[in-house]
Design brief:
This protein is an all-alpha fold. It is built from 4 helices and no strands.
Length: 147
């Protein structure tokens, strides 16, 4: 499992998702680990990768995934930093989605797959726009000005 990446648009969305598109997980052999934490061709599965991404990367407080920041968990300053990190991550995620919509990766999708993608984007777009209403005006302005 050496060729796992995501289309970042040059943006870092998460401590485990680099600007280059590298996905950093011990299961992918991109971070140190031992035993079942690292990829074993004889026993590891794609399900393990997906569950690791869901639990270790796509979690509610990615700030604490950064090396050494886990020591701040539960402390007022750490929680404040986590909220700030999440606000920025939200904006960067929106920018990344716009990048992908403007310059989609070169993949060959079936017509049925394309229909599913369009249906998903159509369904989630109103939620993304409604979330921006809760952002601080200056933050929202900064987000819009970036485009």
């Amino acid at each position: 499992m050496q060729l796992v990446h995501y289309h970042s648009g040059g943006l870092r969305l998460n401590p485990n998702l680099y600007e280059s598109g590298k996905v950093c997980l011990s299961l992918l052999n991109t971070w140190s680990g031992s035993g079942s934490e690292v990829w074993n061709p004889k026993s590891s599965t794609i399900l393990q990768v997906l569950l690791s991404l869901q639990a270790l990367v796509l979690n509610a407080k990615p700030y604490f995934n950064e090396a050494g920041y886990d020591k701040q968990m539960g402390r007022a300053e750490g929680e404040k930093n986590s909220v700030s990190y999440n606000e920025n991550a939200y904006l960067v995620t929106c920018k990344s989605m716009l990048y992908i919509l403007r310059k989609p990766p070169k993949v060959h999708l079936s017509f049925k797959h394309m229909q599913l993608v369009i249906r998903y984007v159509t369904r989630i777009s109103p939620r993304i726009l409604s979330c921006t209403e809760n952002l601080k005006p200056l933050t929202f302005f900064t987000f819009i000005a970036a485009f």
